[in-house]
Amino acid sequence: NAGVTQTPKFRVLKTGQSMTLLCAQDMNHEYMYWYRQDPGMGLRLIHYSVGEGTTAKGEVPDGYNVSRLKKQNFLLGLESAAPSQTSVYFCASRPGGMSTEAFFGQGTRLTVV
Amino acid sequence: GENVEQHPSTLSVQEGDSAVIKCTYSDSASNYFPWYKQELGKRPQLIIDIRSNVGEKKDQRIAVTLNKTAKHFSLHITETQPEDSAVYFCAANREAGTALIFGKGTTLSVSS
Description:
The complex is a heterodimer of chains A (113) and B (112).
Chain A: E1 4-7, E2 10-13, E3 19-25, E4 31-38, E5 42-49, E6 56-57, E7 64-67, E8 73-78, E9 87-94, E10 103-104, E11 108-112
Parallel strand pairs in A: 2-11
Antiparallel strand pairs in A: 1-3, 3-8, 4-5, 4-9, 5-6, 7-8, 9-10, 9-11
Chain B: E1 4-7, E2 10-14, E3 19-25, E4 32-38, E5 45-51, E6 56-59, E7 62-67, E8 72-77, E9 86-92, E10 101-102, E11 106-111
Parallel strand pairs in B: 2-11
Antiparallel strand pairs in B: 1-3, 3-8, 4-5, 4-9, 6-7, 7-8, 9-10, 9-11
C-alpha cells in the first residue's frame, strides 16, 4: 500500500516551459487536492476534485490546470511556467463522506529559472 | 470562501513548557477542524482533529478546543519535548463541501 505518490520529486524548468505533475493514490479516495507551500504562506489550495471527472478551483488557481480522468490520479499542469511558480507542491487525498483525514504525498520541489 | 488565520507564526518554548497555537476561521458553516504537523523536509501529517459538535478533544499531551460562537479553535501541547519541534498547521472544512483550507502555519521550537 503506497498511499499517495507524487511524480516527479524534483524538477527544474525554464520560464515558459510546460510540465505535468502526477499524483496517484491507491486508497480509493474520492477527494484529491493540490497545494503549494511557500515560506511564510502555509499550504495554499490550487485546485481540488470531489470525484472522477470533476475539478474545482481553490485559492490560487491561476496559471495551473488539472484533470481527474481516473479516480486514482490527479494531474496538475503548468502551461507556461513562471518564476513565481517556484514552490513545493503537495498532493493530498481523502475519503469522501464524513470529516476525514487527508493523506499527503511526499511533495515535488519545482524550480522555475 | 473560507479564510483561516493562525497565530503566532513562530513560537519558542523550553522543554516541559506548554505551547498554544490559535486559529480563527471565517465560514460559520465550517464544522471540521484538523491540525497537521510537518517535520522538516517531510509531508504534513494529521495529529488531532475536532468536529463542531465537540468543544474539546484530548490525545495524550495534545488537546484541541473549539469555540464555534467566536469561530476560533486552539491547539494545546503540554510537557513539550524537542521532538515536538515542527511546523503546525490548522485547517477548516465544511462537512458538505470539500475544500480543506489551511492556516499559514506556526513554527514551534522546543529547546532542551
